[in-house]
Write a structure and sequence with these properties.
Shape: globular
Helix content: over 70%
Oligomer: single chain
Number of domains: 1
Mean pLDDT: 93
Strand content: under 5%
Low-confidence stretches: none
Number of helices: 5
Length: 141
């Protein structure tokens, strides 16, 4: 039976939301907005902003929940119990990012003709958020 710590999933969801806020607001918000072609003098519609945040929370929850399931499924592999929580979290984050996020970020950069600066901002966020979520989930079983 797969055991999932739902409190850890909820905490990871909230922490990931905070990381997203920090990443796309004070850290890289202006550069990201310029690379996306937004008018930096125009304030976003509050309704659109709230809708975006709601969908981000749902997406963060789904990412944390599915990652918890994937990490839990790997616990059935013989010898996996030899890895500590740090190793488990790092492996889960790095391989998930490398196999699923990084290729999609590359594809959207090339096919949608986005800048490599935007690629760095987005894929950096994906890596950091996966790393933090995986570490929360692996340490808080």
């Amino acid at each position: 039976m797969l055991e999932i710590n739902y409190l850890a999933v909820v905490v990871a969801t909230v922490v990931n939301f905070i990381i997203g806020f920090l990443w796309y607001t004070p850290l890289f918000g202006k550069a990201w907005g310029r690379e996306m072609g937004y008018d930096m003098n125009e304030k976003p519609d509050p309704k659109v902003l709230m809708k975006g945040m709601a969908f981000m929370i749902i997406g963060n929850f789904l990412m944390s929940w599915v990652l918890a399931h994937n990490m839990g499924a790997w616990s059935f592999v013989p010898g996996s119990d030899a890895s500590n929580a740090l190793g488990t979290g790092l492996s889960a984050a790095i391989f998930t990012w490398l196999g699923f996020y990084f290729p999609n970020d590359l594809g959207s950069t090339v096919w949608e003709r986005k800048s490599w600066k935007l690629f760095g901002i987005n894929t950096g966020y994906h890596f950091v958020s996966l790393l933090v979520v995986a570490l929360i989930l692996s340490h808080w079983k």
